[in-house]
Amino acid sequence: MKTFKYFTIALIALSFLFACEPEEEIVPDVQVKENITSINLEAKTIQSVLDGPPSIELSWESGLQNQAGFVVERSPNDSTHWQEIARLGKQATSFSDIDLPQDASGFYYRIKAIEQGDIPDAFKIFIPVFIPYAFIAPPSELTVTASSATVVELSWQDNSNNERGFIIERCLNGNTWSKLNSVRTGTTTYQDQGLQANTKYFYRVLAFADNPRDRNNPNKSATSDAVEVTTPWRQCLTAGSSHSRNFTFNGNCEMVNVLINGNITMLNGTLRLVNSNIQGNISQFGNGSIEVVFDSEQEGNESKVKGNLIEYGNGSILITGSNIEGDLNEYEDGDISINDDSKVVGNDPFRTYIINEAGSGNINIGNSNLFAHIGEKDGGNIFILHDSNITGDIGEQNDGNITIRDSQLRVSKIGEQSIGDVIIENSFINGQVSFGSFYLGQVTSISEEGTGSLRVSLSNVDANLSENGTGNIDIRHESKIGKESSPKNVSEADGGNVYLRDSSVITGNLAESGYGSLYLDNPSNIYGNFSAN
Fold first, then answer.
1. What is the value of pTM for the model shown?
2. Which of 242, 335, 345, 417 has a Cα at 20 to 30 A from 174?
3. CATH top class, domain 4-132
């Protein structure tokens, strides 16, 4: 006859931890392990945010050799009224109890090995220990509203009748949560104060109850759905006001239709100028950006800045539909973006402004008119796109690309000095650099000095092309290099190849002086001489 040997596992189901996403997760707060000769028993609490109540998972490692199987038993609230809840095979090592009464305050569990032979008496009886258990219904219908630039109002629905209070959690990215505060039982609102203007916040709420075994780790419900909100802009100055003085601001703020004859210093935070006129320099020293924009729904005309814009931190410089008479400098890793019919140009034909990105950020220019030299010094890219007009030099010094697409340029030099590419597509590069009736010079060269390539497609380029590293020169899709009246040459001086195809034309000479090759669809499209080593 088979006999039963009894083993008891002491379980403590503590705090339910929950993930930001509604998925099943093993909660590892406390794991109770009993080392019973050759049997190790463990218990973990499983919380399913979607399905509601948690389950309790039992697992064990058995060193027994003669068992025919296992029986799992549960007792509600005491250690005498045992109920068999599962009968498992001899290879079983785990069991999930998912049918838990929600009104129970705790459980005992034990596992019995069904014998096929003699088992030592050391495995017979062990004193059971109470397992605290309580299901707490999570709150729902969380709403979050920004009542001002620095205050957010929260409200939610209380779905539990056994909570001791609620915990409010907040994060800035939707993933890394931290406790903001806790409120008493029955409370369904909270006000979060002292926030940053124009900042996105995420909130969620959960209920908690006392844990009789560990007062420092209360039992917790699942969280409510996470809700995001963005605080509005704080007004730096009264809209429509005029000032003749310097200003210093700290924290994100916005100006609408403001005139300032003086300089602006931002110690920290983003400065947003909307339809404003600044006759002075703008400097940003902390974390934040400089934004100069035109908003047709606000009062005033396009924004204007007659002075330099300097970003010393990791923020960006954004110019949208506005006029700048000054240099733009970004010294860390932010971007410089100029778009939507913006202008960086003054009244002096001999004054060319500087657009300089000294970190790893990009320079993005779209549908704008610039009389400026453009430089990127540390791994970022330069994009000139969408019918932009540029007068000035363009240089990229460290690993980034220069991309010119659908634009017109009047430049004296375009250069990429590291491993990036120079890409010219559907653009016109004019050799005559002028400002109104002033003739300022003629384009000299477009060069790639590193291991990148130089590619010209669907474009007219009135400049000499040179590739002095190991990259290729690829001229295609009916492009034309130079003019009959002003021939331009193409040269590759290292290990790259030169491709001339798709009825493209070189009006001057073509030379491959390195160890690369020439690939010519039609040699007669080279008006000068061509040679290769």
1. 0.70
2. 335
3. mainly beta
